[in-house]
Amino acid sequence: MDRPPRFPVIIGPTAAGKSSLAVDVAQAFQRESLAAGEIISADAYQVYRRMDLGTAKPTPDERRGVPHHLIDILEPNDPEPFSVHRWLQLAEGLIAEMGWADSADETRDRLEAGSTEGDRLEAGPTERRIPIVVGGTHLYIKALLDGVFDGPGADEQIRSELESWDPAKRRAELERIDPAAAARIHPNDARRTIRALEVFRLTGKPISAWQGQWDRGSRANCLLVILGWDAEAINRRINARVRDMIEQGLVEEVRALADAGQIGPQATQALGYKQILRHLAGECSLAEAVERIKIETRRFAKNQRTWIRRLQTTPGAIRMPGEKYQDERIAQTIVNACFTQSK
Q1: CATH number at residue 164
Q2: Per-residue pLDDT tens over the stretch 154-199
Q3: How far apart (Å, rounded) are the C-alpha atoms in residues 194 and 160?
Q4: Residue 171, in any domain of the structure
Q5: Sorting pLDDT into bands at 50, 70 and 90, what band is 203?
Q6: String of b and e for 7-24 (b: at least 16 CB within 10 Å)?
Q7: Is residue 46 part of a domain?
Q8: Domains in the chain: how many in total?
Q9: CA separation, residue 178 to residues 2, 174, 193, 200, 201 (Å)
Q10: Gyration radius of the chain over CA positions
């Protein structure tokens, strides 16, 4: 059978079973000798080494021999913020390297000499590589599918002023100038609030309006797969996952990073790490920290569902029942769907 015209991009709320399903899909491709599946993580925090339990990073056993990319590529105290632009550059490079650039020109630009898509297709079927993008950072997925808003650079003077403001004042200003952004940005998310205010100051235009103008048309060579769960079911899974993380040693993982001075400003904002750090600083009990992790993770999943509603309008997208993510037939359905061109 020829190579499928599309590669899968799997999304869904946190704790949905995306990582396990992605490995099943990779093995389904391999089983039929169609291609060697390789997973590209689209997760903002799995990029950090030694941040394993709190990010639900798949273990070596859970990866089942399938190559995983964009996991464990940075130190948690890396001074450079890991941005959507940086993820997209790395992901696009990997996709092109596997022979899946969006156009012939892009393929020639990105692949090394002698490694064109045509060369790869002449190889045996099992030597072909197919990217399987998976993750819950849906801004990354949106950027992959439709491009990304390349906003103005940082203005340190403006940022310094905004950082000096009372958080309530910043929030009120965001709600005034950009209600759409305020609806997406959590009131406690100072970094994104400041960035939205900064963009407005620099351009005179709300960041939500800029973000509605993506750089290119929708990518045509991928299949968006939505792993769907209802809110009640996913909330139960989130609560169970948090309990498991604590039992498996999340507190010890965070303490080791903190004691070694290895957790930087961006990494400290990761769900689980932020709350456990507060506990270790004596600001709350462990029980209180665990409850906050559950609450804020459920809130994050709700925000993810908002992103999913926007993304599900992508041409050719398919929705899979979350409760059946471990059913081999789901993986096979996704493989088959990759051979159907989107309309």
Answers
A1: 1.10.20.140
A2: 788 898 899 999 999 999 999 999 998 898 788 888 888 998 999 8
A3: 10
A4: yes
A5: confident
A6: bbbbbbbbbbbbbbbbbb
A7: yes
A8: 3
A9: 48, 6, 10, 9, 12
A10: 21
Residue 104 class from Cβ within 10 Å (0-12 exposed, 13-18 middle, 19+ buried)? exposed
Report the Cα–Cα distance between both ends of the chain, in Å, rounded. 22
Q: How long a stretch of residues is the chain?
A: 343
A 10 A CB-CB count for 65 gives: 10
CA distance 133 to 26: 11
Query: Are residue 224 and residue 84 in the same domain, yes or no?
Result: yes
Query: What pTM was estimated for this model as a whole?
Result: 0.78
User: Do residues 222 and 238 both lie within one domain?
Assistant: no
| Residue 258: band (very low, low, confident or very high) from pLDDT cuts 50, 70, 90 | very high
Domain at 243, CATH number: 1.10.287.890
Q: What is the mean pLDDT of residues 73-94?
A: 91
Q: Read off the pLDDT band of 126 (50, 70, 90).
A: very low
The answer on 84 and 170 residing in a single domain is no
Amino acid at 337: A
Sequence-ordered strand ranges (E) for the chain: 7-11, 36-41, 68-69, 129-134, 222-228, 318-321
C-alpha–C-alpha distance, residues 132 and 6, integer Å: 10
What the block records as the tokens of 107 is 């393929």
Would residue 342 count as lying in a domain?
A: no
* pLDDT tops 90 at residue 107: no
Look up residue 4 and give its two tokens.
């499928």
Edge-to-edge strands, sheet with 36-41: 68-69, 36-41, 129-134, 7-11, 222-228, 318-321
Same domain, 92 and 222: yes
Based on the fold, state whether residues 284 and 182 are members of the same structural domain. Answer: no
Residue 181 is predicted with a pLDDT of 87
Q: Distance of alpha carbon 233 from its chain centroid, rounded?
A: 21
Show the tokens assigned to 211: 């973000």
How does strand 129-134 pair with strand 68-69?
Answer: unpaired
Domain that holds residue 68: 7-148+217-230+307-337
- C-alpha 7/C-alpha 113 separation (Å) is 23
CA distance 69 to 61: 16
What's the CA gap between 213 and 200, in Å, rounded?
15
